[in-house]
Amino acid sequence: MKKVVVNPERCVGCMQCMVACATAHSKSGELFSAICEVPFPKPRIHVGVGLYGEGFPNRCRHCDPAPCMLACLPGAIYRNADFDTVMIDPDTCINCASCAMACPFGVIRYHEDIHAPIKKVVAVKCDNCIARQTKGLIPACVEVCKSNALTFETSTDALKRKTNEVARTVSAEAKQVTAPGFNLLNAMKKAQTELKVNCSRRGN
Amino acid sequence: MKYIVIGNGIAGIQAAETIRKMDSEGSITVIGDETYSPYCRPMISLVLEGVLSPEKLAIRGEDFYEKLHIEPVLGNRVTHIDVADRQVIIDETSKGGRKTSFSFDKLLIASGADARPIKADGLNLKNIFYMRGQEHVLKMLEALTTAKSALVLGGGLVGFKAAYGLMKRGLEVTILIKSGYPLSMQADEPAGDLILKELVKHGLKVFVGAEVSSFEGDRQVTGAHLTDNSFIKCDMVVIGKGVLPSLSFVPRDQIKVDLGIMVDEHLETSSSEIYAAGDVAEYVDIARKTRWVNAIWPEAVNQGRLAGMNMAGRPVSLKGSLSRNVIRIFDVDVMTCGLVNPPADSDHQVISQINPRKSLYRKLVFKNDILVGMVMVNQIDQGGLFAALIQSEIPVRIPKESMLSSSFNYKQLI
Fold this sequence. Notes:
The complex is a heterodimer.
Chain A: E1 2-6, H1 16-24, H2 31-34, E2 46-49, E3 55-58, H3 67-71, E4 77-80, E5 85-88, H4 98-102, E6 109-111, E7 122-124, H5 130-134, H6 140-144, E8 150-154, H7 155-170, H8 180-203
Chain B: E1 2-6, H1 10-22, E2 27-32, H2 44-49, H3 64-67, E3 70-74, E4 80-82, E5 87-91, E6 99-103, E7 106-109, E8 113-115, E9 128-130, H4 134-144, E10 149-153, H5 157-168, E11 172-177, H6 189-201, E12 205-208, E13 212-218, E14 220-226, E15 231-233, E16 236-239, E17 243-245, E18 261-262, E19 274-276, E20 281-284, E21 291-292, H7 297-311, E22 324-329, E23 332-338, E24 348-355, E25 360-367, E26 370-377, H8 383-392
Parallel strand pairs in B: 1-2, 1-7, 2-3, 7-19, 9-16, 10-11, 10-16, 11-12, 18-20
Antiparallel strand pairs in B: 4-5, 5-6, 8-17, 13-14, 14-15, 20-21, 22-23, 23-26, 24-25, 25-26
């Protein structure tokens, strides 16, 4: 089964995945009408910043066993076996935040949603775009990602790709760096952050 | 194999389910005094508040026992355990009933906890309630039809949830808090104050430091006299002074008991093949590094599961228990975990940040670079990350102040 794989070292922090996700989970499914919708569509993937300003797309890992599922008081969190996806039933959710306390990745948010009863605040998180997948589309965040920080592939393929990448870096004839641009970008961000810290220290 | 589970709360239910998953042949008997189908205890406050109907409390179907071939023995409490003869006994002869005994090969004690009783005159008056089970809340709902003002005893989680629920029902609510600030067991002073302010803003009346000496009323409660000689008028009273493990039936000479039943990492008691889990069990607290009873739902879920696995023959270890809580009151969210108020003379490092205008607060407690406690008021999305850090005891190698920022996330740790 294909899954969304996050390759954080390739994230440039453009946040297009967030926009695409919010749009995919809006009533209209179109960006320009989505921004007028009530409740305002919100993303289920969250691009955070690392210590040096590098991007980090954070989304639900659909753990098994899922800590949020065990912690859920009313039993609103369940697993969709067909898509190996942890789902939240908005009708049953009581917005108690027990799942926020259980999720080690911090990917659950609480707000109104088009799939929930009107005006009801519920726990919302990534659903692997099951609605899109049943139409033969890939998850919106992957579709929009230009830097391959998000890929949609089987675990075996992802593992093989990663192994090959590592193997190439240790080979004697290693000429090809996986992603020189990304490494440079992140190195620059880190240098910039350290420069700022040092300058402000000197200023004091 | 004959399994007996004492208690049909979540620890007992989780254990029975786990045993059945791993042992389809063995006989499982669940003995419990509550006759409802398995329900979610923490949600009873939502029934009081009126946002959830009592039927919605059930978290397993009515055919739960039948489907898993579990024999339910409901409606009475266990009175003895005969450790030598491997028997659990329900002796109702003093109440004019029968004496029944059940033999076991493996036993789980998951009898939970009862509301901590208080001492005061007039406790037998009508409309004075403890808030522990579905039964209590259903009775409170009857009282709500006539009650206009309520007195809540206890500034802990139960007290606050009761006060919140009753306020939402339109009652005039007064809360009595013994210690200096609310949620003193779960949170710290700044967090307690933020919650208190929120409730006071919505009309809650608060008395700090006083306790009830006696209740007044003719059949039904009409008010309470306090230890400071003041008097509070009220039509109903809710007592939320914490819980105590229910273990009066446990033979202390054969099963080691401290505050709760002492268990090892496999949830086994000092008597072999007898296990304990949930609110009645006592194991080492990860953050406090000492034996502790953490009578909370997620701990009971986990301990019940692990006890079930161990009983069914798969040895798995519980790393330790951990106190944690999350509460939402009006527009304030509070999450706490681990050691929140470290002793002042210790080698704990505390960092915190408060923004009273935005009702934001975050406090982290470290010991040797290991996170051992946290309090968050609002912006609690990342709380689970802190709880996981406390649980895993992985030393934090990044500048700790960055963890106080609302932009702190998982990436910064890897």
